[in-house]
Amino acid sequence: MTEQLTNGSASDRQFTYTYGSNGLVQTIVDQGRSVTTSFIYDNFMRLVTNATGGSSLVQAVTNAYSYNLRGSVTTLSESWAGGSSTVMRTIDGYGRIAEETVYTNGILQSDFDQFWDSTGRRIELEQNEAPTYGTIGYAYRADGLLTNVTQGGNKFSFTYADNGLLSLRSNTLSKVVSIVRDSMGRVTQQTCTVAGTTELSETNTWRANSTLSAYSAGRNDGNLPNDNRNYSYNTRNQLTTEGFGVSSGANATYSYGFDSTGWES
Predict the structure, then answer these.
(1) Do the Cβ atoms of 164 and 145 come closer than 8 Å?
(2) Separation between Cα atoms, residue 263 and residue 13, nearest integer Å
(3) What does the pLDDT look like over 155-203, one tens digit per residue?
(4) Do 83 and 97 meet the contact criterion of CB atoms below 8 Å apart?
(5) What is the per-residue pLDDT for 67?
(6) How does pLDDT run across 18-60, given as a tens digit for each residue?
(7) What is the pTM of this model?
(8) Cα separation, 38 vs 24, whole angstroms
């Protein structure tokens, strides 16, 4: 099979494809650049290697893949003139990645272990031979929602309302963000406090179709102004005006127009 890109009567690039008895592509030849890519498969028709070569050394690249009995990729390597990189994975009996190591030119770059609980949720991500911050721990509620993340002595906590939506998040740096929602689960207010002082309070007002009607932000920072925004829509629910604060006491408005077909004009 051949394929070509044309520019008028001229042919810019032309490709030739060959296929094996398994119906899978065996070679792709870029005739314009004289670059050939060859593919090799195993008995399960999984790609084992694909090698590209041409007149230039930079065109010589080979990718190789290894699989376990379940068909999960366990090794992916790439080699080129003067270099190589390899990703190796250990897969547990449930098909989850237990360890992943990355090498560049044979030198270890990273090595991570993952640990899972009996329900299949990740409870720890550990960077081997890393300092304290290389280990991250995870805790969950019975329904699978994340409740805590710990790393290097820091703890990040998450609280949920009865509807399962996030209502509070906090950390060991005395920063707390509380979230208030309406009966439809939309965020109506979000407050950020640091060491007991409210630094940012945001309010959202929603229309019946869940488009934003108004937004306000109050900041406890003399360098940043408070912000009040209002939004207007036409009968097609397309945004027509958007007001916002540019500085303390100064506001600006964007206006949008649409033609009879609904396109912005």
Answers:
(1) yes
(2) 38
(3) 999 999 999 999 999 998 888 999 999 999 999 999 999 988 999 999 9
(4) no
(5) 97
(6) 999 999 999 999 988 899 999 999 999 999 999 999 988 889 9
(7) 0.74
(8) 11
What DSSP string runs through the chain? -EEEEEETTEEEEEEEEEE-TTSSEEEEEETTTTEEEEEEE-TT--EEEEEEE-SSGGG-EEEEEEE-TTS-EEEEEEEETTEEEEEEEEE-TTS-EEEEEEEETTEEEEEEEEEE-TTS-EEEEEETT--GGGEEEEEE-TTS-EEEEEETTEEEEEEE-TTS-EEEEEETTSEEEEEEE-TTS-EEEEEEEETTEEEEEEEEEE-TTS-EEEEEEEES-TTS--EEEEEEE-TT--EEEEEEEEETTEEEEEE--B-TTS-B-
What tokens appear for 209 in the block?
A: 């179709």
Residue 123 banded pLDDT, cuts 50, 70, 90: very high
229: its two tokens: 């925004």
Instruction: Name residue, tokens 């890393």.
Output: 130
What the block records as the tokens of 246 is: 């540019």
- Write the single-letter amino acid at 66: S
Instruction: For residue 19, report the phi and psi dihedrals to the nearest 5 degrees.
Output: -125, 150
Tokens of 177: 């963000």
Locate 44 and state its tokens: 């399960």
Give the CA-trace dihedral at 45, 51, 54, 60, to 10 degrees: 170
- CB neighbours of residue 155 within 10 Å: 15
Closest CA to 182 of 205, 159, 200: 205
